[in-house]
Amino acid sequence: MKNISTNKPLDALNVFSFKGIQMQTFHITWLTFFFCFFGWFGIAPLMKIVKDDLGLTKGQIGNIIIASVSATIFARLIIGRLCDTLGPRLTYTWLLAIGSIPVMTIGLANSYESFLLFRLAISVIGASFVITQYHTSAMFAPSIKGTANAVAGGWGNLGGGVTNMVMPLVFAAFVGAGYANHNAWRFAMIIPGVILLIMSFVYYKFTQDTPTGNYANIKREAVQKGSFASAASDYRTWILFLAYGACFGIEITFDNVAALYFTENFSCDLKTAGLLAGAFGFMNLFARAIGGIVADKVGKVYGMKGKGWLLAGLLVMEGLGIMLFAQTGSIGFAVIAMLGFAMFLKMANGATYAIVPFIDSKNVGSVAGIVGAGGNLGGVLAGFLFKSETITYAEAFIYIGISVAVIGGLTALIKFEKKTLPVTEQTLEIA
């Protein structure tokens, strides 16, 4: 029976509904995360222009790739804790407002060093994912959390693909208006910064922390002082940390290098490379959601053990697909291989966060933050491969594929079920 109370977590997801604070918050949070990608990775499809403008070397571009995801590691840990204490509404509002500043001003960079610092500052925006998953978890019942988290995360991640398609067009519009390339990319980045500032107001005005109200206005169970320690002491949290590094970490790395890879390896022009890179991100429209939906269905039959096996299998297939992609010699086969491994990768994203809310029901934010940080650590480690002057981009993808498959094998050995479960709807209602 579907709950009809307006102040309870929903036990069904109707994506065409905007009725009630739960669905209103759901749509605003995924849309906000979607626009965060425009700020976070808006510069990625323009890196060929930036490279020529600032005279960047392969090693310097590698450092920029690493910087674009590195600060997010620490930001996600902090943001997860803030969600548990301050609440997702205010946390997101402040993150958006502060994060919009370096996005709008990155055009002031006139050297490798200054550009690197701006890219590092912008990477904090990546912590927005933790808030989206936390807020969605608070609005839906346990039976549907995996699906709701996967749909919200997937539609938000779709911004990574759309960014690769849209930002070259924004750049072209400024060029068409008479600006030279070295100015056009600078003005283009003002657009996503302004959007983030607008969304900070929208989030503050039209969402609330839980179905029953904002943290400041409702009676909640006291947040334990040791909540982060509790989340960090569970070995399952760290296995998911590794798993998310092997899927989302590779996703953000590919978002960063895809356009440049297609440009330099297959001699594509900027728009074509952006469209091909965008196709990878565009699969978030359905692939991550499928991962969450399948995980929820598997969980109903086989429990947490089944969810763990599903995640492991997806990671192994992702790794094999990446290795195949790295060895393709034609652009046609490369695109087919890319779409193949993208399917498994994004399903693994959804399957991971179908497990996260059940690791520690009282500290969902801290668990989500740690696991989310793992995604960015994976991106940082992968970035070092693309920085190297001694290996090619194709060789880097082979090493990544092997690592992902190994982590998938390790995940298959882990027991995710815990005797202290099941988690009740009541405990997760305030999570």
UniProtKB/TrEMBL annotation:
Protein keywords: Membrane, Nitrate assimilation, Transmembrane, Transmembrane helix
Record bears the keyword Membrane: yes
Compartment list: Membrane
Matching Gene3D superfamilies: MFS general substrate transporter like domains
Organism superkingdom: Bacteria
One Pfam family named in its UniProt record: MFS_1
InterPro entries in alphabetical order: MFS, MFS_dom, MFS_trans_sf, NO3_transporter
Spans traversing the lipid bilayer: 28-49, 61-79, 91-109, 116-135, 155-177, 184-204, 238-262, 274-295, 333-355, 367-386, 393-414
Membrane topology: Multi-pass membrane protein
PROSITE patterns referenced in this protein's UniProt entry, alphabetically: MFS (PS50850)
Domain Major facilitator superfamily (MFS) profile: 25-419
Family according to the record: Belongs to the major facilitator superfamily. Nitrate/nitrite porter (TC 2.A.1.8) family.
Name of this protein: MFS transporter
Source lineage: Bacteria, Pseudomonadati, Bacteroidota, Cytophagia, Cytophagales
